[in-house]
């Protein structure tokens, strides 16, 4: 690991520290960099999710015009 001096927006770093309950600026910077630099999902990884039991009505989730009648 290398030691580096950088200028950081105090408001942004405080926001990250509060939101993710991080104890130091170093932790916050490390956390943010790891989130940004993590590998993207490949097409193969996404296709491997096919058939895992996703059973939701997308129109209902989107707020479609489905009406529920109460008896």
Automatic annotation (TrEMBL):
It holds the Pfam family VapB_antitoxin. This is Type II toxin-antitoxin system VapB family antitoxin.
